[in-house]
Amino acid sequence: MLSLRKEDKLLKIVSGSLVDLPSPSSLSYFWNFGSLLGIFLMIQIMSGLFLSFHFAGDVNLSFDSIIHMMRDVNNGWLLRVVHANGASMFFLLMYIHVGRGLYYGSYRFEKTWLSGVTILLLSMATAFLGYVLPWGQMSFWAATVITNLLSAIPYIGILLVEWIWGGFAVGNPTLTRFFAFHFILPFVILFMVILHLFFLHETGSSNSMGVASDCDKVSFHPYYSIKDVYGFGCFFIFFMLICVMSPYIFMDVENFITSDPLVTPVHIQPEWYFLFAYTILRSIPSSIGGVIALVMSVVVLYFLPFVMNHKFRSTYFYYFMKYLFWFFVVNWLLLTWIGACVVEMPYSGLGMIFSFIYFYMFLMFWLI
């Protein structure tokens, strides 16, 4: 069996990625989140595929088709809550994964980091498109507000918005094309994940100290495959407890009401994983400035491999940077909290302060 695994070309590739892959001996459970993200991506793709069998991409039918899934389809309610809560779990894992890369200096591996940031951006686009599909009150108004942001682009903004809408307002053409893109983008993300893994295996995993460990490596299996299985088991139990005991904890109550273009919700807000960027957007008085700040809140991650030129990769050797990183995490959590609050004092003022600190932190990371 060992010789077959070494000689067969396909098995050799699989073995080199999952069995014999040389890995640093000092990896902690923070390195589990990459494999967890891969598993949850497949859960999202499979649950979304089965949900698409019953979904109707029409403004007159989409909301009722969701109700039909929940009430009439066998285990349809479970599929729906797994897919909806799976998106929240996916972003929770991704933010932890990005934070771990920032803390331990994984951005020094340029191709791996840049492909990972691209996956984050594609995932955010896919999640937004999926949030619109139920065509509830919050779905409709979130689509209206977010797409209208593009109108701030000089000269072509209005034309771009009308092209995305497929008309002069958010309507049936908008929902149809959002459904099409929401279906196809996960497969683009899957391709990017394969590319991400290829770059990772080309350079090898980094360790917590950020130093060379070529002389101290172990095979991925069984040392880290056991860790991945254990980590997935613990997190999956947590995930299923949420799906069974609190299935609607991440959903907005407004989205359980069918969309009405004549009634504007009191407080329009996106899902929790967009709230930090939403706070930054509404903290800038200028429309075009808010859009630029919104985009830069994620795109700024692209620049890290080129501006963070520390002699050592890990913050293990930078005493002050450890505290700076955790200050950044607290600031990000505060931005998320402010995004869920109404636009009034003191929340609007605090949002401006935390938004400034968010970008200032990246400048501090560069200067240290």
UniProtKB/TrEMBL annotation:
Residue stretches making up the Cytochrome b/b6 N-terminal region profile domain: 1-209
Co-factor requirement: heme; heme b
InterPro entries with a match to the protein in the record: Cyt_b/b6_C, Cyt_b/b6_C_sf, Cyt_b/b6_N, Cytb/b6-like_sf, Cytochrome_b, Cytochrome_b_C_euk/bac, Cytochrome_b_N_euk/bac, Di-haem_cyt_TM
Recorded topology in the membrane: Multi-pass membrane protein
GO MF annotation terms: metal ion binding; oxidoreductase activity; quinol-cytochrome-c reductase activity
UniProt-listed Pfam families: Cytochrom_B_C, Cytochrome_B
TM regions (residue ranges): 29-56, 77-98, 113-133, 140-166, 178-200, 229-250, 284-304, 316-335, 347-367
Domain of life according to the entry: Eukaryota
Cofactor binding note from Swiss-Prot or TrEMBL: Binds 2 heme groups non-covalently.
Binding site for a ubiquinone: 201
UniProt subcellular location: Mitochondrion inner membrane
Binding, heme b b566: 97, 196
Gene Ontology CC annotations of this record: mitochondrial inner membrane; respiratory chain complex III
Example of a GO biological process term: mitochondrial electron transport, ubiquinol to cytochrome c
Domain Cytochrome b/b6 C-terminal region profile per the UniProt entry, residue ranges: 210-368
Alphabetic keyword roster: Electron transport, Heme, Iron, Membrane, Metal-binding, Mitochondrion, Mitochondrion inner membrane, Respiratory chain, Transmembrane, Transmembrane helix, Transport, Ubiquinone
Residues reported in the UniProt entry to bind heme b b562: 83, 182
Function as written in the Swiss-Prot or TrEMBL entry: Component of the ubiquinol-cytochrome c reductase complex (complex III or cytochrome b-c1 complex) that is part of the mitochondrial respiratory chain. The b-c1 complex mediates electron transfer from ubiquinol to cytochrome c. Contributes to the generation of a proton gradient across the mitochondrial membrane that is then used for ATP synthesis.
Oligomer and partners: The main subunits of complex b-c1 are: cytochrome b, cytochrome c1 and the Rieske protein.
Family: Belongs to the cytochrome b family.
Protein name: Cytochrome b
Species, as recorded: Plexippus paykulli
Gene behind the chain: CYTB
